[in-house]
Amino acid sequence: MKKAQPWIGLIARLSLGGVLLYAGYLKALTPDKSMMAVRAYELLPIWLANIFGVVLPWLEIGAGVLLIIGIAIRYVAIFGSALMITFVIAISQAWARGLSIDCGCFGDGGAIDPSQTKYLETILRDIGFALLGFYLIRYPLTKFALEKRESRQEKPSHALTPGE
User: Fold this and answer.
1) Is residue 110 part of a domain?
2) Could you list the pLDDT tens digit for every one of the 164 residues in the chain?
């Protein structure tokens, strides 16, 4: 398993990073739809939902790029996992409240016909991506990442210790 961890991490990193980059890209191109999607959850005041609708896609793009190239993996994985868990909570509350909305995950969003909702599939998908993030939090060292392992070698014999 030890030899597979960096490869599994690479797959997790590219998967989570890819979905964040793709989703952010689609929403950044249509900020009006992105704002509408956030407003559809009816959780935030309109002005704050609009800010989230504009800012969130750019945060997703940034996180996606960092994961794909492999920089600050643990920190970006924390952000990505937290984002996915937030999405799960938001979608769950919309489902529980009987709202008929598209999640807005990939550029669309807003009110839809109740027969078109895909709450369970969306929740399971986002839990899966959160799990990829949790894996990267635990094992951030992956293949082909720009971020390298911190040196864990012993100090050189000529290094001074405190008090010398």
Assistant:
1) yes
2) 789 999 999 999 999 999 999 999 999 999 999 999 999 999 999 999 999 999 999 999 999 999 999 999 999 999 999 999 999 999 999 999 999 999 999 888 888 999 999 999 999 999 999 999 999 999 999 999 998 765 344 445 555 555 55
Q: Which residues contact 41 (CB under 8 A, 6 or more apart)?
A: 49, 90, 93, 94, 99, 101
Distances in Å between the Cα of 28 and the Cα atoms of 77, 91, 100, 127, 146 are 21, 21, 23, 23, 26
pTM of the model: 0.87
Asked whether residue 106 is assigned to any structural domain, the reply reads yes
On whether residue 124 sits in a domain, the answer given is: yes
Q: Give the separation between CA 105 and CA 42, rounded to whole angstroms.
A: 16
